[in-house]
C-alpha cells in the first residue's frame, strides 16, 4: 500500500484536524487531531476510563504505556459523582489527573444496554431474529425511548432520570472533555428495518438539537476550553440507511455551526464491519476526523484503519484483562491456566510494556490464581499497551507504505488458542 503525502487541515476554534498522509488504495490516512489539552496522532486507540479511571491502573501508567487520550462515560459520570462535581473540579482531565485530551460519549449506548440488557455487546449477528421488543433473558427494561429523549432507571439506586439532546449536551459540557458526542439512539441488529428508520430520524432530530445546545453552551461558557462536537452515524447493517445518515449529518448545520467530526455508532455485524465503515467514511466529509465507537479487537482495528477510521475506543482490553485474558502476538490466552504455572517467559516477548519487562507468565498466573489485586493492574497495563502499540505500528506502516505487509504478518499469526480468530 503506497502512501501519498497531503495536507488537509480543518480548524474550528481551538480544535483542528490535519491529514498528513493518505493511502493510495484505501481510505486509510495519517493525521493529527489538535485539542486544548494536546494533540492526538492518528490513527490512534483511545483507552476507556468509564468512571474517570481505567480500572486498576493509575493515570501515570496509562501515559507511560503510550495512551494519547482517554474516553469516559457521560452516563456513569452523570450518576456518580455528578457533572456539577466535575465542573467544579475543573473538568474531567483535571479531576482524574490526566494531562492529555479526553473524550466522553453521549450516553446513547447506555440507552441500548439499559433498554435491552445486552451490556457491552456491540458486535451482533444480523442473520438472527427481528424484534423491536428484544430484551436479553432475565433482564428488566430500564430505559424507554420516545421522540424527545429517554427515560431510564438508575442501575445504582433505581431512581428515575431523563436524558434529552439538550441534557446530554449540558452534562458533557460540565464534564469538560475535549471531544464530545451528540446524543443518539443506538439500536440493536435485532430491531426491524422500520424501527431502524425511526431511530435514524430521532438521531437526526436530536443531532440538530445537540448542535443548537452546543452552540448556546459554548457561548455561555466562553471562558472554558473549546469542546469539539462529533455527530453519530447510525443505520445498522443497511447500506442506504448508513449512507443517508452520513450524508445528512455530514452536511448538517444549525445555529451557524457544523459537527467537528463524526462517530460511527450502533451495533455492528462484525463480518461486515469493513463494508459498513467503508460506506460511512466514503460518504462523510474527508476533512473531518472519524471515530469508531466501541470496537477494539486487534483484527478489527486493521479493518477500521484501512476503511478510514482515525480513532477507536473500547473497553475490551481492560475488561478481559481483569479475568486473566491477555493478548500475545500469536493470539489471546488465559494466563491463569495450568500451562503457565511454570512458564517463566514474559506474556509476549515482542511487547515492551512494564509488565513484560518485569514479570513472567508464571508470576501473573500465580497472582490470578491467588486473587491478588495487582493481577488486574499488570494484565491491564499489558493489554492496553498491546493495543495502543499495535495502532501506533499501523500509523507508522501507513507512513512507510507497508500497511498491507504489517496486516498480513500480524493476522497470519494472530489466533486464539481455541482456534477462533475473533474476540
Q: Can you describe what's shown?
A:
This protein has helices spanning 59-64, 74-79, 83-89, 92-95, 108-116, 165-175, 193-220, 239-251, 273-281, 298-306, 316-321, 354-358, 361-369, 374-400, 403-413; strands at residues 3-12, 15-23, 29-35, 38-42, 44-47, 70-73, 102-105, 143-145, 149-153, 160-164, 179-181, 228-233, 253-254, 257-258, 261-264, 290-293, 311-314, 325-328, 331-334. Helices cover 38% and strands 21% of the residues. It starts with a strand and ends in a 10-residue tail after the last helix. It has 423 residues and is α/β, with parallel strands linked by helices. The strands form 5 sheets. The protein has an 8-stranded parallel beta sheet. The chain contains 15 helices and 19 strands.
Strand order of the largest sheet: 5-17-16-15-12-11-7-6
Uncertain segments: 116-124, 134-139, 417-423
Quote the distance from N terminus to C terminus: 27 Å
The residue fraction in helices comes out at 25-40%
SSE-based structural type: alpha/beta
Strand content: 15-25%
Radius of gyration: 21 Å
What is the number of helical segments per DSSP (H or I, 4+ residues)? 15
The mean pLDDT is 91
Sheet having the most strands: 8 strands, parallel
Based on DSSP secondary structure assignment, what is the total number of beta strands?
A: 19
Identify the overall geometry. Answer: globular
Amino acid at each position: 500500500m503506497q502512501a501519498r503525502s497531503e495536507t488537509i487541515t480543518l480548524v474550528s476554534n481551538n480544535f483542528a484536524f490535519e491529514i498528513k498522509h493518505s493511502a493510495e488504495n484505501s481510505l486509510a490516512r495519517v493525521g493529527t487531531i489538535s485539542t486544548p489539552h494536546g494533540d492526538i496522532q492518528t490513527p490512534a486507540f483511545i483507552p476507556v476510563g468509564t468512571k474517570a479511571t481505567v480500572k486498576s491502573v493509575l493515570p501515570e501508567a496509562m501515559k507511560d504505556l503510550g495512551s494519547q487520550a482517554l474516553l469516559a462515560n457521560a452516563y456513569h459520570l452523570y450518576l456518580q459523582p455528578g457533572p456539577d462535581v466535575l465542573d467544579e473540579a475543573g473538568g474531567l482531565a483535571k479531576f482524574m489527573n490526566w494531562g492529555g485530551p479526553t473524550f466522553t460519549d453521549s450516553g446513547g449506548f447506555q440507552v441500548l444496554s439499559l433498554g435491552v440488557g445486552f451490556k457491552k455487546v456491540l458486535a451482533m449477528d444480523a442473520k438472527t431474529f427481528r424484534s423491536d421488543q428484544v430484551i436479553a433473558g432475565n433482564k428488566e427494561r430500564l430505559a424507554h425511548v420516545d421522540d424527545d429523549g429517554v427515560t431510564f432507571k438508575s442501575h445504582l439506586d433505581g431512581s428515575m432520570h431523563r436524558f434529552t439532546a439538550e441534557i446530554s449536551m449540558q452534562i458533557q459540557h460540565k464534564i469538560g472533555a475535549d471531544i464530545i458526542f451528540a446524543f443518539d439512539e443506538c439500536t440493536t441488529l435485532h430491531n426491524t428495518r422500520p424501527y431502524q428508520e425511526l431511530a435514524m430520524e430521532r438521531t437526526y432530530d436530536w443531532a440538530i438539537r445537540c448542535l443548537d445546545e452546543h452552540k448556546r453552551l459554548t457561548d455561555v461558557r466562553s471562558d472554558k476550553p473549546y469542546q469539539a462536537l462529533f455527530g453519530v452515524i447510525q443505520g445498522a447493517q443497511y447500506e442506504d440507511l448508513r449512507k443517508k445518515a452520513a450524508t445528512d449529518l455530514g452536511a448538517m448545520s444549525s445555529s451557524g455551526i457544523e459537527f467537528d467530526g463524526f462517530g460511527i455508532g450502533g451495533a455492528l455485524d462484525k463480518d461486515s464491519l469493513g463494508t459498513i465503515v467503508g460506506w460511512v467514511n466514503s460518504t462523510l466529509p474527508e476533512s473531518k476526523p472519524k471515530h469508531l465507537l466501541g470496537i477494539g479487537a486487534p483484527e478489527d482495528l486493521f479493518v477500521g484503519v484501512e476503511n478510514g477510521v482515525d480513532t477507536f475506543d473500547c473497553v475490551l482490553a481492560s475488561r478481559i484483562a481483569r479475568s486473566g485474558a491477555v493478548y500475545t502476538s500469536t493470539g489471546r490466552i488465559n494466563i491463569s491456566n495450568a500451562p503457565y504455572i511454570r512458564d517463566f517467559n514474559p506474556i509476549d516477548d515482542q511487547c515492551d510494556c512494564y509488565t513484560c519487562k518485569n514479570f513472567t507468565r508464571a508470576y501473573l498466573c500465580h497472582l490470578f490464581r491467588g486473587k491478588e489485586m495487582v493481577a488486574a493492574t499488570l494484565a491491564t497495563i499489558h493489554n492496553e499497551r498491546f493495543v495502543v502499540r499495535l495502532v501506533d505500528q499501523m500509523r507508522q506502516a501507513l507512513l512507510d507504505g507497508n500497511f498491507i505487509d504489517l496486516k498480513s504478518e500480524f493476522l497470519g499469526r494472530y489466533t486464539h488458542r481455541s482456534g477462533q480468530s475473533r474476540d
